[in-house]
Write a structure and sequence with these properties.
With about 350 residues, this protein is mainly α. The chain is about 55% helix and about 5% strand.
Length: about 350
């Protein structure tokens, strides 16, 4: 579970400790402001902590003061936070702060960050907090290393979202497998690479996400969810691209949906969308039977060749392909099937 709140030490310092004066009234005002932001999530996160871990500059600075002052072994404790509050108010002004272990560059904004951290302890029922050596930048680097070593946080994000919104795993697998087979035939002629394969696979896994909202227009509901959800490991641009693929996987091929993407990648994602649409169409019957086909790609011309007699035995799929050919013609792509 995760949450992001509009709280920060610099902002809180400017809001409640402007000018640098450190008084009990200002401290109480800052803690109250932080508690108000925390209130909507208190019940979800309060109590039952086995380990609470704090990260980034303010937390590390407060932990350093704890250790240098002999209040703890480097962890942040409730008692230590009380002592820190007392020390801040005793010194009375940010310009005069001379706490053991405190970096002078951190002193001007310490009060705002400390008030927020105290509010977190109070709101979430934390008694002791350990400290992470890393922060956001290190987390980004770990994520990138994980991708190179095929431990991609995005995989977990996709699985978690699919489970949360009860996506049918069997149908997602069928569409993903078929999309993968089509991609392997199209990748060379269209100049697509591994990153494109991942995006197509994730779009296939989540294309029915919107069914949990409503069956009508579910592709639009899914696109909205993908655009705005917190998805671990994904950049906002990647989420936007994933949302576009799912948005256009059925019905009219909405070419304008790609306008949110950088111009340099729009053409590639139009091609991925075509492959996803075909995979969804070929698996519309939600059956596990094999679909014996081969795909040939020459620029914007796609030819699907099925086993002899297969299309004749599947008239609904043949009708769907004829309709899809008309829709793709509107975006200058020619589709034939035999």
């Amino acid at each position: 579970d995760m949450e992001s709140l509009y709280l920060g030490g610099v902002t809180m310092t400017g809001r409640c400790f402007a000018g640098g004066a450190l008084t009990a009234e200002r401290w109480d005002r800052a803690v109250l402001a932080a508690r108000r932001e925390l209130e909507p999530v208190e019940r979800r996160f309060r109590g039952g902590w086995e380990v609470a871990v704090g990260a980034s500059g303010t937390v590390r600075a407060i932990a350093a003061v704890h250790e240098a002052a002999g209040w703890s072994d480097g962890r942040i404790t409730r008692e230590g936070m009380k002592r820190l509050r007392g020390a801040l108010l005793k010194q009375g002004h940010a310009d005069k702060l001379a706490l053991p272990g405190l970096d002078p560059d951190r002193a001007p904004v310490l009060a705002g960050g400390a008030a927020i951290l105290w509010a977190v302890f109070e709101a979430l029922g934390i008694d002791t907090m350990t400290v992470a050596n890393g922060a956001l930048r290190e987390g980004v680097l770990y994520d990138l290393i994980g991708r190179l070593e095929h431990h991609d946080a995005r995989e977990r994000g996709v699985r978690g979202l699919a489970e949360r919104f009860h996506v049918d795993p069997a149908q997602a697998r069928r569409v993903s497998d078929t999309a993968g087979a089509l991609f392997r035939s199209a990748a060379g002629p269209w100049g697509l690479g591994g990153q494109h394969a991942d995006m197509l696979r994730w779009a296939a896994a989540l294309h029915e996400l919107g069914l949990s909202v409503a069956h009508s227009q579910h592709h639009k509901h899914a696109a909205y969810l993908l655009q705005h959800a917190d998805m671990a490991g994904f950049s906002r641009q990647e989420q936007a691209a994933l949302a576009v693929l799912v948005r256009v996987h059925r019905r009219k091929f909405a070419r304008g949906a790609f306008d949110v993407l950088p111009k340099g990648v729009r053409g590639d994602y139009v091609k991925l969308a075509v492959l996803l649409r075909l995979a969804v169409l070929l698996r519309r019957g939600r059956r596990d039977e094999a679909v014996p086909l081969a795909l040939t790609v020459e620029e914007n011309v796609l030819s699907l060749q099925f086993a002899p007699g297969w299309l004749a035995g599947h008239p609904l799929t043949r009708a769907d392909l004829e309709e899809e050919a008309r829709r793709l013609a509107a975006v200058d792509i020619t589709l034939t099937a035999c």
